[in-house]
Amino acid sequence: MVLMLIFYSFIFLLDRISLVMLIENMIARRKNEHVIQLFENDCGTAVVVGILKYYGCNANYIRIRDAINNSDKGTNVKDIKLFFNKCNISSKIFKLPKSNRLNMLMNVSEENFPCILMLSGEVVNHYIILYKIYNNGKCLISDPEHSKIEKIELREIVETIQLIISCKVKNELNIPEKYINKNDNSLMMKLVKKYIQQIINIFLISVVTVIINIFITSIFGLAIDQIIPNIKTISFFLILLMIIIFSILGMSDACLKYFKFTIAQRLTNSVEKSLYSEYVHKIFNLKYNYYQNIKSGELMTRLKEGIQITNMISTILTNLIVDFLTIIISIIILFCISSTLSIVIVISCLLCGLIINYFFNKMVHSGYEISKSKAELDSEIISSLSKIETIKTFNEEEVVEEKINKLVESYIEKRNLNLELSKDSIAYQNIVIQLSNIILITIGILFISINYMSIGSLVIFLNISGMLFSNILEVVGIQVDIEMFVVGYKRFLLILNEFEIDNEDDSLFVFNEKIKSIEFQNFSLSYEANILLKDINLDLFQNSKNVVLYGESGCGKSSLVRTLIGINENYTGRIYLNNICIDNINNKSIRNEIIYLSNISTIRETSIINFLTDGKKIPMREIIKVCSDLNILDVIERLPNQFNYCISDDGMNISLGQKQRLLIAHAILKNPSLIIFDETFSNIDLKNKRLILDKLKNYDILKLFITHQSLDLEDANIFYFKNLKLIKKGE
């Protein structure tokens, strides 16, 4: 019964990851919530989600971000207030006077908490949640840039407070359903349910292992009590029997540990593979606007944090269960041997607990800063390598190196701080443990001298207490890892559960017909605060298969065509494909029919044939014809291995003109309804450009050209961007 109770306690612990989270979930509905910001200037979103969670609403981070217009420049306080009012949260904005600020805040009544503080920042303002102000001048805050809720001196922030935003629910929270997160965030419990049999097996093996370990630890003391009084009469066979028993127990322990680690390894491998697949599917199918906000280094860091789930599961299954069982059983045995000496153990454990408590939050925060610093370093390296040609062109290698070196120094400095904290914590704990051992031995010798305890019992007590201290220190170390893991785990879940997949709605229409018309109705286009087009009504391909868009740089040509394939949603009005509104069409099915080529389109590292066909079976004669029409066939045939020639990443080992012609060939072989050429001919010489344009007439494909150059096209609908309108030539 006791073992089953312990087992189910661990199952629940797996779902909540840490003891801290376990306790929090036993508290009433309104508990102080902490939400870590996902993007750089997302503190506004994080505090709004934190307030909603405080009032019991599992808010969707990404949709809240959109609702309060949180951009890479931050959030406007008025947008936060308006959103709160929509949710039946009474919200007012107060400005603190410059004088007597501290006293005014100290006199704020309890009913006004929680509230949001807007602090002045170096570049943009920063939002935090203020949960409580204590009589001693301290306050409880949730800073989205930090890893957890923390207690600080109020005077540390009082001078930087610009505004206070109140947020009290009037009667009942009334948040629109679309902002509520419907996904089940209990990933750990899903994993537990899936692998319950393996977990039970590991638990049972752990129980037997603990019992064997304690018996092995105790056997030497038992032997002493048997041998010393009977030293003259003890037989060789008795000694041999004890050696055999000890050996059998030792071998059994080794075998059980081997089986336990084997089961745990198979389980964690299976979990890791599943998480990798799910995460990779997610990040390659996100809505396009998410990629504009999150850096590639951040995505990799989130993946690393998510994969730590498997490491943590392995640690829990192979170490933590054994440690907890050992601690519980050891304490029971120690009190059975000597309650007096056990009190010394309890006092020592309490002292170690105080030391741990002192260093714990500092180590967790330091670990979070290390994680952030590593993400910044990874992002900068990835970004710099992707722009290496530009860096070399402008001779900026030293500038980039200096920036990366500063990030490396910052990362090492933060890591060293964490190591120093860990080293100090372990040193103080070891001092307590050594003093405890000295006291135990001293008292034990006194007990032996008065026949209150045997030598064997003291040896058993010291061995088990040593094992107890060892396991306590290991649990503490794991708990620090768990707390750090929880931070990354939450951010991993944010991407896995709250980021929306492009056209996730199954009710959307799958477009599987050739495009014949593209019509804009009451269409207006913007970029950030700039209006690019206003109230457009036109049919692009009316009476023609070719469209040309002319306009100055930045007028909105590319932004307009990107709306067709769902990678630009900054517009109002309607767009119709064959009289079907694209709002009702699955974007992936649209992208099967519309290929967008720009002057920055890239080629992944692969062979020419794999790039042209995407690994699909396309008749070779068709591939050769397309390449011949684009005047690239002779180039391919001169290359080593010809169509099997490996193109380096982004086509670094071929010319820009050759790269653009391969991209056009790739697009044609996909057999789309429409190809959009956004400055695609910019690096193709005039002779080849004319040849390609002439050959494109032979393909039953709509063509839309965006260019600064004059194109010699017959029967083309030509439009000019002028005064927020699209003016058709001849009208």
UniProtKB/TrEMBL annotation:
GO molecular function: ABC-type transporter activity; ATP binding; ATP hydrolysis activity; ATPase-coupled lipid transmembrane transporter activity; cysteine-type peptidase activity
Residue ranges occupied by any ABC transporter domain in the UniProt entry: 518-726
Signal peptide, first to last residue: none
Cellular location(s): Cell membrane
Pfam family, one: Peptidase_C39
Gene3D superfamilies referenced in this protein's UniProt entry, alphabetically: ABC transporter type 1, transmembrane domain (1.20.1560.10), Cysteine proteinases (3.90.70.10), P-loop containing nucleotide triphosphate hydrolases (3.40.50.300)
Membrane spanning residue stretches: 6-23, 199-224, 236-256, 312-335, 341-360, 438-462
Name this polypeptide is given: ATP-binding cassette domain-containing protein
Membrane topology of the entry: Multi-pass membrane protein
PANTHER family: ATP-BINDING CASSETTE SUB-FAMILY B, ATP-BINDING CASSETTE SUB-FAMILY B MEMBER 6
Alphabetical UniProt keywords: ATP-binding, Bacteriocin transport, Hydrolase, Membrane, Nucleotide-binding, Protease, Protein transport, Thiol protease, Transmembrane, Transmembrane helix, Transport
